[in-house]
Amino acid sequence: MLLAAFSHNRIFQTRFWLMFSSTRLAQLLSAIPRLYFQQSTETHQADRYVKRCTSWQLLVTLVSGHLTQALSLRSLATFSETLAAHRYHLQAGPIARSTLSDALNKRNYRPFQDLCEFLLRGISRQQRKEVGAMVSLIDSTSITLRGPHFDDWTAATKTRITQGLKVHVGLDLAQLAPVYVNITPANVNDLTDALEMPIRAGMTYVFDKGYCDYNWWYQLQSKGAFFVTRLKKNANLKVLREHSTVAEQSPVMTDEAVQFGKKHLGGKRLNDYRDEPVRRIVVEREGHATPLILVTNDFARSAEEIADLYKDRWKIELFFKWIKQHLKLKRFYAFSENAVRLQIYSALISYLLLHLFHRRSGFPGTLFELTVRIAHVLHERPEAQAFRERRRQEREKLKAAQGSLQL
User: Fold this and answer.
1) Contact at 8 Å (CB) between 257 and 243?
2) Range(s) of the domain holding residue 345
3) Are 243 and 349 within 8 A, CB to CB?
4) N or C: which end of the chain has fewer CB within 10 A?
5) Cβ contact 167:141 at 8 Å
6) CB count, 10 Å around CB of 259?
């Protein structure tokens, strides 16, 4: 219902914004369907009885804070003062520190979650349009939240390894942008979340040993999807045949069709994959004494391609590192669960907005270079930047001409 309501006005809304408020910040935010966000806010009653700092104002402030790497609530409130000159078009202005703190703790995070999922669907649609195979890298990262301010709501769900929240992500390999995000307590197992994740036919899912469950792998295959993962050392397998001949110079040591020997997976749970063949690929690892043992239901790709797919899995680790470092997701402005979720979702929204702007603008540099440039001219109009560039070129030409006259 929300999608149908905003789609009619989206084109007009985007043109209006770019015509009357063409700052870099406005261009980034133009990818957000304002009507959709407003209706989500009303659905969740996030702004009920709110007089200052609406959910939209909080979103604009947090996105700006991520882009400029504001390190504290005070610096975030100070930066919000720069929004005063664009209050009319952005519908956001200066926010006092105490008001900002109150908003982080009391504004419902659900509209931010809805907006994040809307942008993820846009990335997913683009994924289906891309030429070539669809590949999704699956993993999670922990957000550590310890201390007297966090323990009230994180201590009950802590594990032996971590305490706080866990962000589960499915990352499109071609775009290096997430298509699936879910935030859970730290004690939610990766596989537990994966069982609830939507599966798309034709997709190749790449994940590590933390997602080892033969029945889930069988579900992936039953729904027309492929998987590539590592095999545990104690896996009970029966070799059926050699799938392909290994070249002498290849890092692939063996490529075989195998079958799981276990009929039960602990207790009385039957192994649904017991009668289906899978493919085991053993790859030599440089600098390691033990080889890499991979398993997949993809019998079409070459063994080298399967090995390269698993090697690309580390790109999701780089994604986690990127958002934590460049969008400052290591320090939090407030300590409640609602405030932390607001900051995580706004960081993900900022990344998705940067990704969309990077793709649409045709910027030749990396996403990091784009982020740095936008952070320096966040409230500047593009024509002002173009004017400065022309003046710089004219000065360089003048210097060159003066040098030639002296000769």
Assistant:
1) yes
2) 2-109+334-376
3) no
4) C
5) yes
6) 16
Question: CA 224, CA 226: separation in Å to the nearest integer?
Answer: 7
In a domain, 18, yes or no: yes
Q: What is the pTM of this model?
A: 0.84
Structure confidence at residue 362 (pLDDT):
83
Average pLDDT, the chain: 85
Q: Which residue shows structure tokens 């504001």?
A: 70
Instruction: Look up residue 366 and give its two tokens.
Output: 């990396």
Domain for residue 122, yes or no? no
Q: Say how many domains are in the chain.
A: 2
Which residues, at least 6 apart from 147, have a Cβ–Cβ distance to it below 8 Å?
A: none
Query: How would you class 353 by CB atoms within 10 Å of its CB: exposed for 0-12, middle for 13-18, buried for 19 or more?
Result: buried
Is residue 154 included in any domain, yes or no? no
Give the dihedral sign, CA 290/291/292/297: negative
Question: Under DSSP, is residue 55 helix (H, G, I), strand (E, B) or coil?
Answer: helix
Distances in whole angstroms, Cα of residue 262 to Cα of each of 27, 92, 212, 215, 400: 56, 60, 14, 12, 78
Q: Could you tell me the strand order of the sheet in which 177-185 lies?
A: 177-185, 164-172, 134-144, 203-206, 226-230, 292-296, 277-283, 252-260, 237-242
Confidence at 384, pLDDT banded by 50, 70, 90:
very low
* Residues 298 and 341 grouped into a single domain: no
For residue 172, list its beta bridge partners. 136, 177
Q: How many residues are recorded in the chain? A: 407
Residue 19 has pLDDT above 70, yes or no: no
Tokens of 104: 């982080």
Tokens standing for 69? 């790497």
Residues 6+ apart with CB under 8 A from 216: 191, 194, 195
* N-to-C CA span, the chain: 73
Assigned domain for 135 exists: no
- Identify the pLDDT of residue 262: 78
Regarding beta strands 177-185 and 164-172, do their DSSP bridges make them parallel or antiparallel, or are they unpaired? antiparallel
Strand partners, 171: 137, 178
Summarize the confidence of residues 287-314 as an average pLDDT: 93
Predicted confidence (pLDDT) per residue in 330-365, tens digit: 889 999 999 999 999 999 999 999 999 998 888 888
Give backbone dihedrals phi and psi of 324, rounded to 5 degrees, phi first.
-75, -35
